[in-house]
Amino acid sequence: MKKLLPLVLARFLAISLAHADEGTVDVDIRPQPLAAALESLAQKADLQLLYPADAVAGKQAAGFSGTYTPKRALEKLLERTGLTFQFTGPRTVAIRTDGSASRHSAAQIDESSPIDLETVVVTATKTERPASEVPATTAVIDEKQISQMYNRDLSDVLRRAAGLDVQRAGTNGIAVINIRGLGLGRSSTLINGQFADFLDPGIGNRSAIQTVDWDNVDRIEIVRGAGSALYGPNAMGGVVNIITKEAPEVPNVTRLFFLFDSLPTYGGGFTTGGTVDSVGYFLDFKHLSSDGYKSAPEPAFSPGAMGTMMHSLEKGEWNKTMAGGRLNWNLSDKANLKLGFNYLDDHNNAFDRPHTPSDGQYGQYSLEYAHWLTDDDQLTVNLSYRDHQTDLTFDSYFYPFFLTTNPQYLLKEDAKKLSGEIRNRWNIAEGHTLLVGFYGSQDWARRRTLNLVSGTLDDHPRNDITNYALYGQYELALWDRLFLTMGGRGDWFEYDLDNDVTGRAARQSYGIFNPRGGVRFKFSEEISLRASVGTGFRPPDPYGLTGARNMPFYEVRPNPSLKPEKSDSFDLGLDVTTPFGSKISATGYYNHLTQYQLLSMHLEDSRLIYQTRNLGKVDSYGAELEIQQKITPELGLFVNYTYSISEAASDSPPGVSGLPEKGRQLPLTPRNKAAFGLVYESNRFSGRFEGRYVDRQYIFGDSRNDPAYALGSYVTADFRVTYRHPIGEKQTMDVSAGVRNLLDRRYETRFIDVFAEPRVGFVQLGMEF
């Protein structure tokens, strides 16, 4: 049998190559970027071409025309490009750099198990690089993984990621991310590489990750570790980059779907897109309505509270309309223009308070122009605009002795963010790349709090913040084994803040510089070691700079001396691919955060004085383990585990709140966290069974990590199965079904009494044509 196996596999390879030579195709390729020429040939010859984007970046195709077999056309197209190709199936071709094809013998090729080409990432260096060459801790959640999950918003996708926690905050459950335990608001969200968060953290109601439709996402790249050297504010724990879909390479693909679950939730939508000549488009639309979330079934008690926290016994409800899209236009052989947008219209009643309707509209619009000045020099210009409009009517949430069910306040949020970036990537010489860029943004944030009982305007802050930055990065690649990056970014901020109710104003400016460096050494194609060091920062809170109300019994005093928080970050990692098909990534990390912003309190002439000050320090350290195992060509296993210590590293002065005692764990940071699952994928069937374990967490306001008030640990599980049935040459119908929260666990997702949904069954019908 052992002697026959190589002969059988060799015969299979010969048959595959013979199929590649069968038939001819008329080819007319004009001079253009190699990636575009490959796409054109793939459509004409009905081929599936597999290659890392970095392999073709910056390469040009010489024009040619005539009648060729697919094999001969590929040979002509790849002449003098340094690339080779190999048929791994009758219509599937793997393209690689010279020499890499020799690593795969005929005995390794199997049509049912195509060669696993490497993931290409952008976020870690702002340039397309294979993940095995990036000296940073990265993870990618791709379109296929997202489609195998049952999501209620995009934040659900992130819950399975190592080193990252998603918490609900605010009245309506704003999803905020916490990377490596540094706390909420200390990691950055990007949309297509552009910073999407508002610099005024008081603007909330919906975070950026909740305003993008998950069906419009190509992949999510997560980079753990300080990222301010490339992305500026808040990137102390890391960055999450949401990359939306681009146009399909075929003339048109349309997909319709309808969804129903047991809450009940119902709705539907469509995606459509295609490419014709030099123009490609993608459009996404959906509408969902739901009876909402599980309400808090009983009152709860919070440490330090004067009475009982009361909650609605009614379920919340919501409906949302989402849309998104991309337009790609190849202006010439060397220039490309991309337009993109994401929009959410959201109406809901909060699930933890009675009578708290919220209405919001959120939009994100972007433009990207890329031009190859030469074969080794690319100029890119980005413009991005974000608009946030919402009205939230709410009651008085907490009273010691009674609960009002009448709306008392109307909060109106109006925020806009305009940002732009121009960068130039220059391949100086073989293995040497220089990236330089300029970034600028302007934030306009307005909030009004109306007292509906008295008819007065209680609060009206107006915060304008300008941010300019220059950054540079040098990348070195030697012998295909050593990869080095080093660079830094200087940021300049100007604050123009005022509140016409309190009469408080602030005019501040400051600058900060953040360096970064990283190295990866590949002992072989299967084993590599990486390390990185960097710094990060979080700008001063506008609320802390201006203060707020001045009442007879208390005052929120401004602090014009407030400084940005700073962090130093280190990590060391090992990536291994075993002979058994396992991919293992292990990382240890350490972060030290200083100038932590805390709210101090003291008595002054019988009045309580509040003021935000830089009084705290935090240490965060731990380990992350990620394992992927291919069991069969169709079945795979994944496991990740995070161990995180995130504790106060300094004693807070008397009368200061916001951090626990020195050596105690920070709130909402589980010490142990794990995700695990099985994934099956074939032509007709796919399925995903997964579970999550989250350790005990401590709540806000608990300075001593008191177990009596801790959120309990839990294990939850989900599964989804899909059957795809062909109904025509290029048409399919699919049916998906599954259960979310299979074990019906009752667990809290916020500091107190905000519960996850109960067990939910769902069915989804779809058609693609």
TrEMBL record:
It comes from the Bacteria. Belongs to the TonB-dependent receptor family. Hemoglobin/haptoglobin binding protein subfamily. Keywords: Cell outer membrane, Ion transport, Iron, Iron transport, Membrane, Receptor, Signal, TonB box, Transmembrane, Transmembrane beta strand, Transport. It is a multi-pass membrane protein. InterPro entries: Beta-barrel_TonB, Beta-barrel_TonB_sf, Plug_dom, Plug_dom_sf, Secretin/TonB_short_N, TonB-dep_rcpt-like. This is Iron complex outermembrane recepter protein. The lineage of its organism: Bacteria, Pseudomonadati, Pseudomonadota, Gammaproteobacteria, Methylococcales. Residues 1-20 form the signal peptide. It is found in: Cell outer membrane. PANTHER family: HEMOGLOBIN AND HEMOGLOBIN-HAPTOGLOBIN-BINDING PROTEIN 1-RELATED, TONB-DEPENDENT OUTER MEMBRANE RECEPTOR. CDD domains: ligand_gated_channel. Residues 47-98 form the Secretin/TonB short N-terminal domain.
